[in-house]
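step=encode ok
step=design start
structure_in=
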């Protein structure tokens, strides 16, 4: 049995608010890179790019971070963009749900070898179950759940867009 926590309208309102927060924190920059973790994290990044382009004059670039969210170790994480495009830039790493922080911790690894100005984290839902030292700079919805519960964010299917608790 699932409960819908956020409907489509509420989910897009959260994304728009996060876009404004990103702009407020980066208004003095000429460009920002939005890097989305494959799956719904990348869809979230795409939606943020659309919102940021509507509200700001920043040059916004998007990148995809490919990671296997189910694997226990992550030997091969890829950024599907040229490394030089990140040099001395602000990067916002996006994912749909921050649970334990494992996926985001692994996803940060390729960025650690690039000289960046700043790296920030944006998530739609923060479940507050930290097992890794990862905190989100931008959060759409924060809630505490039991370890047995599951949060699913759907952005890729227009008819089902929303946040669900299972």
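sequence_out=
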């Amino acid at each position: 049995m699932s409960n819908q926590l956020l409907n489509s309208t509420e989910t897009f309102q959260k994304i728009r608010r996060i876009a404004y927060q990103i702009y407020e924190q980066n208004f003095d920059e000429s460009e920002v890179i939005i890097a989305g973790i494959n799956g719904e994290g990348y869809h979230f990044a795409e939606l943020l790019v659309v919102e940021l382009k509507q509200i700001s004059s920043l040059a916004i670039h998007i990148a995809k971070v490919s990671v296997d969210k189910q694997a226990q170790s992550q030997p091969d994480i890829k950024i599907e963009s040229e490394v030089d495009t990140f040099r001395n830039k602000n990067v916002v790493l996006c994912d749909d749900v921050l649970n334990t922080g494992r996926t985001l911790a692994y996803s940060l690894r390729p960025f650690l070898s690039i000289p960046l100005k700043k790296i920030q984290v944006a998530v739609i839902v923060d479940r507050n179950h930290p097992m890794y030292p990862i905190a989100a700079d931008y959060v759409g919805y924060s809630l505490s759940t039991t370890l047995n519960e599951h949060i699913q964010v759907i952005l890729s299917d227009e008819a089902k867009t929303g946040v669900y608790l299972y």
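step=design ok
step=annotate ok -> The chain has a mean pLDDT of 94.
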